[in-house]
Amino acid sequence: MNYNKKIGDRFIEPGKNLVKKDEIKNSPLNKLKNLRKTLSEMKSILVAFSGGVDSTFLLKIAQEELKNEIVAVTAKSEIHPLSELSDAQRIAQKWQVRHIIIAGKELLKKEFVNNSLERCYFCKRELLKQLKEVAQKYNLNYVVDGSNYDDLNDYRPGRRALKEFKIRSPLQEACLTKNDIRILSKKMGLETWGKQSNSCLATRIPYGEKITIEKLKKIEQAEEFIQGLGIKQVRVRFYNNLARIEVKPKDFVILLEDNLREKIINKFNNLGFIYITLDLQGYRTDSMNEENKIKKLRNK
Description:
Number of domains: 2
CATH architecture of the largest domain: 3-Layer(aba) Sandwich
CATH superfamily of the largest domain: HUPs
Strand content: 5-15%
Radius of gyration: 20 Å
Number of helices: 12
CATH topology of the largest domain: Rossmann fold
Distance between the termini: 46 Å
Shape: globular
Strand order of the largest sheet: 3-2-1-4
Number of strands: 7
Low-confidence stretches: 1-18
């Protein structure tokens, strides 16, 4: 399989996202043209498909450009909410895309379970190994994922695995940001255009604390309960018998209503949480890395 094909001068090596600087300032429509050109030249691909905003957009454009020369693959694992798998299955079936579900194996790896700062690398490495095997089985030229241009600004150890396995990130190559993708998805009528961002449930557990199925289930049930109150964006950070709830500041008032507050306390107590806290900084991505960022600043 050809994993090192050069496409114009917009791309040199998988995982590096080497692009022309002026492409960053392009309009979403111009970036979309570049994306279509890239996918068309790939000829056949396997799409790592989570059912989220980015991978759904990528899958749709890939289907338009490559027709039947694509396979969508989704991992079923305790580190992902079951609702995400259901969404992926429904969308793939609706679009009549060949969809394969594989069993995630990250919880069998002690490097992942031990939850070091490199946790995401070990998880991604295990997943990509499986995706490459599926791609080889179906004789597909490339494995692609839904990483967008904004992801380059976050702490993402998994990017190292993408480079090692020569995985392509066409959305990054086209400099498509999350906002670009939402704009284009809405224009195309994709149901996911306004879907809230999600991440693996293990990101709710502090580094150094072992990841267990029991903890992941508690987190999933706690977040589903808050979402059932009408709050779309929520993270429940897990600290053994303490839960730190992150929601957008505009949703604080909902959680603090006497009736709902009591329901939350009862539910979380039943899940095993003794202390239930509301983070006054509100929902934000990457909050579990804040302690490490502060330590680095102190050591300077």
